[in-house]
């Protein structure tokens, strides 16, 4: 049936500031913007905009104006919003300050995402129909594990282990494709007892635990490991404007392409072309390109 994305949704409230304020300091912002965010919702938008793969978002929103706006944004992108939980907690919010030198500071209010502690019957049912189940770690790991266990036998579970957190043995046993950036790779390898943060050693350590691994390397592209084969997929050379959501665009498109039948290397190629377009635009969901743009850029 396509991709089911289980994860977080946030309203991103972004201020551009001359510098990150220190303790007790008050600053005037240079600009202010609101937009859809949260790794789960971002990846759902990216998967839907990749075209061709039906995309369902499973997550939680508050009973408030931000929740309505996020639901509308997802639906506009072509995401099926029919089984999103409605929470008494406020919609998740990320308060993001970006300084002129590119430094940022982020405060996340978990809200409805933190209140999302179990899957409903209809959410479980939709997960059971997925070809690809895609999840991240911005919601309770118990929900991610329950979704992985509710997928059908032939379905592929892609875990984007972000933000960094050690995985339980039960979770390791479920993961089909692990996607991490360099820092998350080193953190996860450390949690498995790696003696240092060397990337090659981390990759080897992680590859022992999963059948397929993708390590994203920012402007250097990504590394795909499957069946003992390592493939380096180069990034597309561009001048980045805002790298927010690059990783989410990459992962969402990768999930959609896997659901359409691509192999992992081909799916990663699509993901990197889409992410290179996303870094040239501001915003998380706002920066996610459409399928025709990605096709034209390939
Ligand atoms: P995020 O900044 O969204 O948290 P991330 O750390 O999860 O991102 P990255 O490894 O930075 O993930 O980027 C994911 C993918 O996006 C890369 O593998 C690459 O294909 C693409 N990408 C990221 N930065 C650039 C860039 N400067 N130029 C071209 N492509 C990029």
From TrEMBL:
Its EC number is 2.7.1.15. Substrate binds at residues 10-12, 38-42, 138, 248. K(+) binds at residues 242, 244, 278, 281, 283. It catalyses: D-ribose + ATP = D-ribose 5-phosphate + ADP + H(+). Residues 3-290 form the Carbohydrate kinase PfkB domain. It holds the Pfam family PfkB. Activated by a monovalent cation that binds near, but not in, the active site. The most likely occupant of the site in vivo is potassium. Ion binding induces a conformational change that may alter substrate affinity. The keyword Signal does not apply. ATP binds at residues 181, 216-221, 247-248. GO terms for biological process: D-ribose catabolic process. GO terms for molecular function: ATP binding; metal ion binding; ribokinase activity. Homodimer. Catalyzes the phosphorylation of ribose at O-5 in a reaction requiring ATP and magnesium. The resulting D-ribose-5-phosphate can then be used either for sythesis of nucleotides, histidine, and tryptophan, or as a component of the pentose phosphate pathway. Belongs to the carbohydrate kinase PfkB family. Ribokinase subfamily. PANTHER family: RIBOKINASE, SUGAR KINASE. This is Ribokinase. It comes from Ruania alba.
């Amino acid at each position: 049936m396509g991709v089911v994305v289980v994860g977080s949704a946030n309203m991103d409230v972004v201020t551009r500031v001359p510098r990150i304020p220190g303790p007790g300091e008050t600053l005037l912002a240079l600009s202010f913007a609101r937009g859809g965010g949260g790794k789960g919702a971002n990846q759902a938008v990216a998967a839907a905009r990749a075209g061709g793969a039906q995309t369902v978002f499973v997550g939680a929103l508050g009973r408030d104006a931000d929740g309505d706006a996020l639901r509308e944004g997802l639906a506009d992108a072509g995401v099926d919003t029919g089984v999103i939980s409605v929470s008494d907690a406020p919609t998740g919010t990320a308060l993001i300050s970006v300084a002129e030198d590119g430094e940022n500071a982020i405060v996340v209010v978990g809200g409805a995402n933190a209140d999302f502690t179990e899957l409903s019957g209809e959410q479980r049912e939709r997960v059971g129909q997925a070809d690809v189940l895609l999840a991240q770690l911005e919601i309770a790991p118990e929900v991610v594990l329950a979704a992985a266990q509710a997928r059908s036998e032939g379905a592929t579970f892609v875990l984007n282990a972000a933000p960094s957190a050690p995985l339980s043995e039960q979770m390791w046993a479920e993961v089909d494709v692990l996607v991490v950036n360099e820092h998350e790779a080193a953190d996860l390898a450390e949690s498995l007892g790696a003696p240092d943060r060397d990337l090659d050693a981390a990759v080897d350590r992680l590859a022992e635990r999963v059948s397929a691994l993708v390590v994203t390397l920012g402007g250097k592209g990504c590394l795909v490991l499957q069946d003992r084969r390592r493939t380096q997929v180069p990034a597309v050379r561009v001048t980045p404007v805002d790298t927010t959501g690059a990783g989410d665009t990459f992962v969402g498109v990768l999930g959609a392409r896997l659901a359409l039948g691509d192999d992992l290397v081909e799916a990663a190629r699509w993901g990197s072309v889409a992410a290179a377009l996303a870094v040239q635009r501001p915003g998380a969901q706002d920066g996610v390109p459409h399928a025709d743009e990605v096709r034209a850029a390939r």
